[in-house]
């Protein structure tokens, strides 16, 4: 789980999200593992916003493109460390599903902002979402939580 979806103050702006009823239930059942790749990668809270050019999280993983903040600071290393730690944790814990925050440069699984810091979305994925997908973890976002719940109910 993206830690921010569990109400933890790890977002770049230090804000918190309220937890949905479904997530509260899963949490009470002890089924959730909280993880924030950007904080795990060494970035502070709050931090300057970063974007992945063209939603190309997989290209960042492959060393083809960097991740920069809105100020032009290269934060590629922190993003890669967070993604690697997420995959390590997933392997250690036998994680098969990840529910990650939509549109994040780390966690977005279907879209991210396009790297120009102009509020434009592009189809693609964040760095950790790409890494987990490549590691065989099925990645969902918060709008897809019911879909994930249906899969879990079927024990798939
Ligand atoms: Fe951390 Fe991902 Fe949430 Fe961003 S979206 S605060 S990287 S858990």
Question: Key terms for this structure?
Answer:
about 160 residues, alpha+beta, two-stranded antiparallel sheet, two-stranded parallel ribbon, 6 helices, about 35% helix, about 10% strand, globular, binds iron/sulfur cluster
N-to-C series of helices and strands? HHEHEHEEEHEH
> Quick one: biggest sheet?
2 strands, antiparallel
β-strand number: 6
**What's the end-to-end separation, in Å?**
18 Å
Q: What is the share of helical residues?
A: 25-40%
Total number of helices: 6
Mean pLDDT score, rounded? 97
What gyration radius follows from the Cα positions, in whole Å? Answer: 15 Å
Each distinct ligand: iron/sulfur cluster
- The stretches of 5 or more residues where confidence is low (pLDDT under 50) are none
Order of strands, main sheet, comes to 1-2
- Label the overall shape: globular
Structural category is alpha+beta
Strand content: 5-15%
InterPro entries: 2-thiour_desulf
Describe what this molecule looks like in 3D.
- It is a single chain.
- By secondary structure, this protein is of the alpha+beta class.
- It has a domain at 47-153.
- Helix content is 33%, strand content 12%.
- It contains six helices and six strands; from the N terminus they run H-H-E-H-E-H-E-E-E-H-E-H.
- It has helices at 21-28, 37-40, 57-61, 76-93, 127-134, 145-153, and strands at 50-51, 68-69, 97-100, 111-113, 121-123, 138-141.
- The strands form three sheets. A two-stranded antiparallel sheet has the order 1-2.
- Helix 4 runs parallel beside helix 5.
- The longest helix has 18 residues, at 76-93.
- The structure holds iron/sulfur cluster.
């Amino acid at each position: 789980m993206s830690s921010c979806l569990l109400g933890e103050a790890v977002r770049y702006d230090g804000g918190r999200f309220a937890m949905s009823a479904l997530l509260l239930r899963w949490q009470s059942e002890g089924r959730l593992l909280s993880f924030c790749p950007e904080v795990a990668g060494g970035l502070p809270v709050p931090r300057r916003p970063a974007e992945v050019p063209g939603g190309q999280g997989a290209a960042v993983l492959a060393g083809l493109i960097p991740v920069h903040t809105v100020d032009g600071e290269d934060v590629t290393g922190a993003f890669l460390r967070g993604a690697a730690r997420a995959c390590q944790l997933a392997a250690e814990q036998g994680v098969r599903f990840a529910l990650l925050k939509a549109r994040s440069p780390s966690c977005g699984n279907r879209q991210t902002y396009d790297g120009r810091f102009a509020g434009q979305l592009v189809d693609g994925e964040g760095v950790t979402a790409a890494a987990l997908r490549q590691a065989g973890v099925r990645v969902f976002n918060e709008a897809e939580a019911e879909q994930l719940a249906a899969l879990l109910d079927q024990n798939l």
